[in-house]
Amino acid sequence: MSLTWPIVLAVLFGALLHASWNAFIKSGTDKALDTALIHAMGCVVALPIVLSVGLPPAAAWPWLAASLTIHIGYYIALAGAYRHGDLGLTYPIMRGLAPLLVALGSGRLIGETLPLATWFGVIGISAGVLLVGLSRSALGSASHGHALRFALMNAAIIAVYTVVDGLGVRASGNALQYVGALFMVDGLPYFVLVMWRRGSERPAAWAYMRGRWPRALLGTAASLGSYGIALWAMTRAPVAAVAALRETSVLFAALIGTRLLKEHFGPRRAAGTALIVGGVVALRLI
Fold first, then answer.
1. What is the distance between the alpha carbons of residues 236 and 238, in angstroms, rounded to a whole number?
2. pLDDT of 154-213, one tens digit each?
C-alpha cells in the first residue's frame, strides 16, 4: 500500500468536507445540539446508500459492532469536552493528537511499519493542527482542567475507532457499504444523550433544530462523504498516513473561519500551516 497523489488529493478534499460541517457547528449558538443533529441525521443520508449498495459482508460486522460501541464513548467524551471547554480548545487537541496515537499503535495492531518520512509527516501534521487550532483566545477561554482531560481521552478514543474502522473497511472490501451501515446508527446515541441532558429545555431544543435541520442535512452529507473518503483511502494506503491527512481539516476550518467568520489568522496559525504543508509533503515522500 502506498500514498499516491490521487489518494492524497481525495483525502484532502475529504478534510475540506470535514471542516465545512465543523464550521457549521462553530457558527451556531448551540454547538452540542448542532453536533447531535448532524450525526443523528446520518441515518437519513445513509439509508439510500444502504438500499443501493447493500450491507457489508459478515466479516465486517464485528468491526462495525466494535466501532459503534467505541463511538458511544466518543460521544460521551465529546459532550464532556464541549461542556467544560470551548470548541476552539478541545477540537484541535482531539484531532491533533489522534493521528500520532494511531501511528504509535499501528505497528502492533495493524502490522504496518511506517517509514521515517511518514513519521515526519504525521508529527508535522499533528503539531501543525495543534498550532492552528489552539489560538491564544481558545487557550485563555478554558479555565477548567476537565476540558483538557476529556479532550485527551477523546484523542485516544478517536485513535482506537480509526484503527478499528480501518480494519473493518478492509474486511468489508467496500468502503461505501461500510460507511453506509456505520452512519445508519452511529449518531443516535449521542443525540439521545444530548436531548436527555436538556430536561425541561427540550421544547426549545426541538424549536432550535427545526430552524437548523436543512443546513445540518448538508453537514451530515459532508460528514459521511468525508469519512467515506478516508475509509476508502485506508484500503489503499497506511491507516496512520490517512488519519494524519484527514486532520488537515483543522487547517481548512481555520481558513473558513478567517474568510467567513472574520477570525484572526495570526503568526501561530501561519506557523501551524507551514508544519501541516511540510507534513503532507513528507507523507508523499514514502
1. 7
2. 899 999 999 999 999 999 999 999 999 999 989 888 899 889 989 899 999 999 999 999
Q: Provide the domain limits for residue 255.
A: 5-284
Structural domains in the chain (count): 1
b/e map 230-242, b = 16+ CB within 10 Å: bbbbbbbbbbbbb
Smallest CA-to-CA distance from 77 within 186, 153, 165 is with 153
Indicate the residue type of 257.
G
Q: How far apart are CA 124 and CA 112, in angstroms?
A: 19
The model's pTM: 0.85
Confidence of residue 261 (pLDDT cuts 50, 70, 90): low
d(CA 223, CA 209): 18
pLDDT recorded at residue 200: 92
Backbone Cα Rg of the chain: 18
Nearest to 180 by CA among 69, 31, 53, 272: 53
Return all residues near 199 (Cβ < 8 A) that are at least 6 apart.
none
Mean pLDDT throughout 103-127?
A: 86
Say how far residue 13 (Cα) sits from the centre of its chain.
14
Q: What is the DSSP letter of 30?
A: -
Cα torsion angle, 21, 190, 186, 247, sign? positive
> Distance of CA 141 to CAs 19, 84, 211, 222, Å?
22, 10, 29, 29
